[in-house]
Amino acid sequence: MKIAPIDIAHKSFSRKMMGLDPEEVTEFLKLVSEELEELISERNSLRQSLREKELAIIEFKERDELLKNTITTATKMSDKIRLDTERESRLLLNDANQKAEVIVRDARDSLKTIYQEITDLKKVRMQFENNLKALVGSHLTMIEQGQNVMPSPKVGHEAPRPKKQTNPSAVLTSLGEEEQIKSNITQAISKATQVNLDLK
Question: Model pTM?
């Protein structure tokens, strides 16, 4: 049975002979009623405070759980990002190595091709030099044979008189052409030698 403060304040007792002083009893009951009312008020306040604290604890637990889940998710995402980054870096590194190998292989092939072209050019140069030497030699031989067949007139000797009068300017022209031919051959040999030095 619960007793409220108002029940204590309005409690009445039956009277008997030589009983208690009614005013003292009433005063005491009033004091007890006020004290009980304060206790009940304090109890209700404590209950309200306890309820608020319990709600706060529940909220903190929810936040803690959410934070734990967030940390777990962030950790998993971090691990996934790290693994993806490592895999991508390995792929990029392998691709770079393959491209480097292709570049080196192409460079070696190009170098071999260049060496082959240089060798071919040297062969062509040697062939050209041999052909030029042969051509110059054949021209010199032709000039020597021409001099043997038609020797140049020498100073101090009398040339046999031809049946027809020889034009002196024609003889000088012939001598000039011979000198010009020799000069042209000398220049050609000089140019061929210079080309040979440039190619080397």
Answer: 0.36
